[in-house]
Task: structure prediction
Amino acid sequence: MAVFLAWSAAVVPADVSGPWTQLLRLADGLTLVESTEGLSRVYHELKWALPEGTALLVAPLAERPKLKGLPDGTTTWLRDRIAGPAR
Result:
């Protein structure tokens, strides 16, 4: 299972279907995506779910990022899916 960070100029609809197990909306336009599929498939499915011409960035997360001020449960959600930073 992989986790991707997606940013778009439009909000990703919470109920959009795609090749993911879960979407976790962090803020308007910022979403975590859990999927068994690769980067290209996740990117294209999100692209097709957004209005034509919407800016989109999708990146895999190899390590758990440092974060602050995100919705309750975000750190736990990430901790359950991604190893912490190497020390």
About this structure: The beta strands are 2-8, 22-27, 30-35, 56-60.
